Amino acid sequence: MAKPEKYVGIDNDVDGKMSSIGKIILDAKVFGLIEDSETCEGWNYAGIDALLDKVTTEWDKYGCIASGLPEELFKRHQEIYNKAIEEAKAAGWSGENETDNEP
Hints:
The chain is mainly alpha-helical. It has helices at about 20-30, 45-60, 70-90. The chain contains 3 helices and no strands. Helix 1 (about 20-30) packs antiparallel against helix 3. It is globular.
């Protein structure tokens, strides 16, 4: 099966918004790099990579850890991620695949 040329959008993500691309989009929303309503549906992967670069630049300012964010951004991060995790769990995501390779 060939990889699609365009991203399906965070609302159609196979891991209920918690895939690696989904998390890039969530982070971009935290930092205000894209609108909260943006799903990135139809974006080509070069656009996703460019967004990742911007997200990485923002995370680097705060030590790449949520607890390093200023209070307002931390609160926004928690709100966005708590909602996304709740929706992902309702869609069947458990997070186990993220720890499958741990010893």
